[in-house]
Design goal:
The chain has a single domain, classed as Gcn5-related N-acetyltransferase (GNAT) (Aminopeptidase), CATH 3.40.630.30. The protein starts with a helix and ends with a strand. It has about 180 residues and is an alpha+beta fold. It is about 25% helix and about 25% strand. It has an 8-stranded mixed β-sheet with strand order 5-6-4-3-2-1-8-7. Strand 5 and strand 6 form a beta hairpin. This is GNAT family N-acetyltransferase. Keywords: Transferase. It holds the Pfam family Acetyltransf_1.
């Protein structure tokens, strides 16, 4: 949760309204806790034990994705967050490459995500990482809904994909572990 709280502060400082609605925050955090407890959330743990990133592999959000999208053909990214001190290290791109590798291993065609409709900088970031805008959905009770996908075969940094490591450490390098393990 510390990464989320740090991201909330950074977004507020940048003037982005994402994750700042006090009415929906408790529900959003409870949903994320459920993802953590269900083993769908992974963290990047540095050799010194600091957490520098997280990603959740979520079920397709049916407020946005429908059966016409062939829901079972993709892994769905949620809560991709990197620590501010990881800025410039390509950690976000490497996390998405890790998701792509998992999708490919599961013989899935796509990596999909949604993001805040008003967060143009984040949308541009995903486009720069090879995602294609699919469409924008705007259910009245949600502020997210900008939908994008990337072929699972796309790896921007194949030489530097994060390694799965249940123990939390692997050769002194960054490793990706299920939240709560290690």
């Amino acid at each position: 949760m510390a990464l989320r709280i740090e991201a909330e502060g950074w977004l507020a400082h940048a003037g982005v309204d994402q994750w700042r609605d006090p009415a929906t925050r408790p529900t959003a955090l409870a949903k994320w806790r459920a993802d953590i407890e269900a083993g769908r959330t992974w963290v990047v743990e540095e050799p010194d034990g600091r957490l520098s990133g997280t990603v959740t592999l979520a079920a397709p959000d049916t407020d946005f994705w429908s059966t016409a999208d062939d829901l079972g053909s993709a892994l769905y990214v949620a809560k991709l967050i990197t620590a501010r001190n990881a800025r410039g290290t390509r950690l976000g791109a490497r996390l998405l490459d890790w998701v792509s590798r998992r999708a490919t291993d599961q013989e899935l065609s796509w990596v999909r995500l949604d993001c805040w409709r008003s967060n143009r900088a984040l949308q541009a970031y995903y486009l720069a990482l090879g995602f294609e805008h699919v469409r924008t959905e705007a259910p009245p009770h949600r502020k997210s809904g900008w939908l994008a996908q990337r072929a699972s075969a796309v790896l921007l940094h194949p030489e530097d994909v994060l390694a799965d490591c249940p123990e939390g450490r692997w050769g002194g390098r960054q490793s990706l572990t299920p939240e709560g393990v290690g």
